[in-house]
Amino acid sequence: MRADYIIVGQGLAGSLLAVSLRGRGLRPVVVDDGWKTSASKVAAGLMTPLTGRRFTLTPEYPGLFSVASRVLGQEGVLRPMQVYRAFVDDEQRRRGLSRAEDPSYAPFVVRSTEGQGLLHPDLDDPLGGVLMHGAWTDLPALLSRHRESLRQDGLLIEDRLHHDDVSVSVAGVLWKGLAARGIVYCDGYRSAVSGPFKRLGWQPAKGEALTLTSDAPVPPFVLNREGWAIPQGEGVWRTGTNWEWAALDESVSAVQRDKLVARFRGFFRSPVAVEVLEQQAGVRPCTADSRPYLGTHPEIPCVHLFNGLGPRGTVWAPAMAELMADHLHGRAAIPQELDLRRSWPA
User: Fold this and answer.
1) Within a 10 A sphere around the Cβ of 75, how many other Cβ atoms?
2) Rounded Cα gap, residues 38 and 339, in angstroms
3) What's the mean pLDDT in 176-193?
4) Beta carbons within 8 Å of 289's beta carbon, 6+ residues apart
5) CB-based contacts of 159: which residues, under 8 Å, 6+ apart?
C-alpha cells in the first residue's frame, strides 16, 4: 500500500491537514487509534479574541479568525456566539476596560460593563466584564465526520503508530507495509514524550471538562471567567477548564470535578442545581512560546511535524493546515516564528 504522506493522529490538526493535502491532489493515509482523551476531543473549541489576564488581542488573531470562520463555516460546525469575559479583579478590570476603548479592538468588542448585572441580571459579575464577538466549534462532530470520510475512502488505519516501527530511508518511510514519501506527526502531546520531536520546547498541560445539566438561567452568550461555560440547549452545558503541569495523564479527578462545578455555579447570583453527565481529561500540546510547531525534522528530511496548537488550536488549525500542506507540496516555506527549528536544541 502506498501513500504520499502518513499522518499520525486524527485530531483537529490531522483531520484538517488530510483535507488540505487531498485538495492538492495528494493521497494521505491517517493512522489513529481512536484516542478518546485526545486534546481535540476534550477542548471547548472556543475562539475568543481577548485572551490572558491582560485581555490581549494578538496580532495574528484577525487573520486566523477569518480563515477559521471560513473553513469551519463550510464544514457546518462553526457556531458564532458572543463571549462574555467577566473581570476577576480590579487590575484586570482596568486593563479590560482600556482594551474595550481601543479602536483597534473595536471589530471584536460588543460592549463593556463596569458593575453587577448590567449585561444580564442573573449573572454574578460585580466588577463587570467585556462582551466580545467569538465562536465555538463542534469539534466532536467535525472529527466524527472526517473519520467516517477517511474510513469510506480507505484512508484511515485504526491502529497505534509507534515511531520505533517506522523505517526511514532516502526513498521515504515504511510502516507495516505502508510506504510513503513522508510522515507527519499530528499526535498531540505524545510527540512531547516520545518520538523524533521530543527534544523541542514543549510545555504540555492537562485540562478537564464537564458536560452537565443545570436549571441555571441561560444567557445568549458563552460565559468566561478563569474558565468557560457554553450553553448547548435544553439545560445542557459544557464547562472547563484547569491547567495541570505535573500530572500529565488522562484520568479524571474528583477534585477538579468539584472545582469546575463550583466555578460554574459561581457564574450565577442565585444557587443553581447541577448534575454532571460526563467528565473528560486531556493533555494540551502547548509550546514554550505559545506558537505551533510546523515543518521538517532538521536531520530527517522525510519526517515532519504539525503540532503544538495549544489551547487556541481551533483558531490556529485551519490556516496552519493550509500552510503545512503547501510546505509539504513544495509551494511554501514555514515562517521562522512557526518553524519547529526555532526550538530545536543546538
Assistant:
1) 18
2) 24
3) 96
4) 201, 342, 343
5) 31, 32, 33, 176
Residues, the chain, total? 346
Confidence of residue 241 (pLDDT cuts 50, 70, 90): confident
Among the listed residues 305, 281, 284, the one whose alpha carbon sits nearest the alpha carbon of residue 189? 284
Task: Provide φ and ψ at 139, rounded to 5°.
Answer: -65, -40
Bond prior to 241 in cis (omega within 30° of 0): yes
- Helix, coil or strand: residue 343: helix
Domains and CATH numbers, the chain: 2-42+139-202+288-343 (3.50.50.60), 82-133 (no CATH), 205-284 (3.30.9.10)
Of 267, 225, 269, the C-alpha closest to 121 is 269
- The cell numbers describing 110, all together, are 460588543
Sheet with 274-284, side-by-side order of all strands: 109-113, 129-132, 83-86, 222-224, 228-233, 236-240, 205-214, 274-284
In this structure, what C-alpha cell is assigned to residue 264?
A: 460554574
Which three three-digit cell numbers place residue 57?
A: 488581542
> In this predicted structure, what is the pLDDT of residue 36?
66
* Contacts of residue 244, Cβ cutoff 8 Å, sequence gap at least 6: 205, 206, 207, 256
